[in-house]
Amino acid sequence: MIRIINTGGTFNKRYDPIAGTLVVPADDRAVEAALASVGGNVEIAITGTIYKDSLEMEEADRAALCEEVAGAEEDAVVIIHGTDTMDRSARALAAWVQVAGKKRVVLTGAMVPFSIDPVEATANLISAVTAVEYLDPGVYVAMHGLVLPHDEITKNRELGLFERIG
Amino acid sequence: MIRIINTGGTFNKRYDPIAGTLVVPADDRAVEAALASVGGNVEIAITGTIYKDSLEMEEADRAALCEEVAGAEEDAVVIIHGTDTMDRSARALAAWVQVAGKKRVVLTGAMVPFSIDPVEATANLISAVTAVEYLDPGVYVAMHGLVLPHDEITKNRELGLFERIG
Amino acid sequence: MIRIINTGGTFNKRYDPIAGTLVVPADDRAVEAALASVGGNVEIAITGTIYKDSLEMEEADRAALCEEVAGAEEDAVVIIHGTDTMDRSARALAAWVQVAGKKRVVLTGAMVPFSIDPVEATANLISAVTAVEYLDPGVYVAMHGLVLPHDEITKNRELGLFERIG
Amino acid sequence: MIRIINTGGTFNKRYDPIAGTLVVPADDRAVEAALASVGGNVEIAITGTIYKDSLEMEEADRAALCEEVAGAEEDAVVIIHGTDTMDRSARALAAWVQVAGKKRVVLTGAMVPFSIDPVEATANLISAVTAVEYLDPGVYVAMHGLVLPHDEITKNRELGLFERIG
């Protein structure tokens, strides 16, 4: 069983025609659509929470996320998260996992909303869901074809691409 | 480095407005599009060949596919293949791999063409590309969330879904 | 009030993953989706019937279509039809309209299914729905930017494009 | 010959993954894509200009737009414009057309970017392009199935829908 914790971020954004902008909706529709062809075969449970652009995430949100992971019955946890502060949440989670655990936690997200073009978002999520079965305990980031320990990968903000550090 | 061998199948089909039908084009456009967000980070080389609906694959095609895999410099090989005879090609490859080798071969494909809805095709391909890094030598099928030794997975033709055997 | 008579054709085709082919479904989902942004403002009623690839249309189908148009309360009638025999249905309708009437009948359709790429199908349908308000009684074809009396337009089968005759 | 003047607005917006927002690009790609199936048959020339969200349009932009229309050789002019101040540009154009002319000017746009979902944008543009051939001189708005003199139609901001006035 894999626990997916959906915190929002670009992955989930949808266009609101009345507001004329992209918003993070308080639902898991994008995640469910990305997993549609997988659902029956892999036991996955989704927890939706926070539902924010990661630039708006506060320390209280990160604490809540850590508690959510700590409280999950599953050892395999995939977190959908905005890309801008994914590294900060990963560090917060890593401190906790180091002490507590045997959990394999993989953070993922997207640069382009699933609702605008589903390819990158689907690719990132599926690489996280696939890799989590093979990893040792720890906190990882799965983005743009890489699945690496969280402190070996970083977002290149000019290119809009996650890259291996060093 | 991962070698992708693209043999055609539904994954690649595109609508031909003049013919009024879906055709398997002799190119790798769907594969390249599915890998667009991954390309820079993962060393992937694509070999296009055969380009057939798998119902039209002949024994000579399967022999050519085995030779293609045998000749690849890479140990990690992902094969995009029509779903209807994926099991037969997997068995042909398995006989050869058992004798020869240390190669990890993962077959994948799609029930819905990438050009019609990219989600399932992208998910299947990315699960293959992700898993191939972690697997022991052998021949596997990656479809619909499952990555299993080729003789532990089968296509349920009524549901249009690959399932674990037994 | 505009009456839309949906007879099937490529406009409506959808991919059936189990069959592995495009089928003409016995519903009006593509038409409704193409009209979603128009619905509230224009009084439109949809009649679904025949639901065939137009190559499979028989004389009995054409007779049924003429009766459907004759029986419609609305003077403005848009017919969604396969492109291959649109001209034959138009001639059948024209014979009848010439005798009977004040009806403005516009046939339209698509070379690419709405479900694969909605742009051409939407464009053709909206040009028919828009033009039908301005036309004199008669039978017209609205395809690819042209709205012309049915005997002044023809399908160029090499290009997959409707063209003005002469 | 129809002159299309593309001033930007939501119709043209595209997602910029680096900025993480929708932007009005300084090109006519959305318009060209919406017209792809029409191009060969209808003589259309596109002038790109201003390229703004209509909330950011200034009086100088409106003056420039009037000059652009005045200077066009074509009598049939379709203007792609943001929906929020479409009424103000229409009034500015109407004052000028009343004095000068025989031009038929139709403003159109979209609530949803063509790049996110092409159906509404295509429908609005095609209704404008189709109707402009049949209209008397004047300034019109073509949105959501309606093609009306500009002072008989208004944007319902709660519904995100243009409606007939009165």
Give an account of the 3D structure.
The structure is a homotetramer of 166-residue chains. Chain A is of the alpha/beta class. The first copy, chain A, has helices at residues 29-34, 59-71, 86-100, 118-131, and strands at residues 2-8, 14-16, 21-23, 44-52, 76-80, 104-108, 138-143, 146-149, 153-156, 161-164. In chain A, the strands form 3 sheets. A 6-stranded mixed beta sheet of chain A has the order 4-1-5-6-7-8, with helices on both faces. The longest helix of chain A has 15 residues, at 86-100. The relative contact order of chain A is 0.19. At the A-B interface, helix 4 and strand 10 of A face helix 4 and strand 10 of B.
Note the topology:
The structure is a homotetramer of 166-residue chains.
Chain A: E1 2-8, E2 14-16, E3 21-23, H1 29-34, E4 44-52, H2 59-71, E5 76-80, H3 86-100, E6 104-108, H4 118-131, E7 138-143, E8 146-149, E9 153-156, E10 161-164
Parallel strand pairs in A: 1-4, 1-5, 5-6, 6-7
Antiparallel strand pairs in A: 2-3, 7-8, 9-10
Helix pairs in contact in A: 2-3
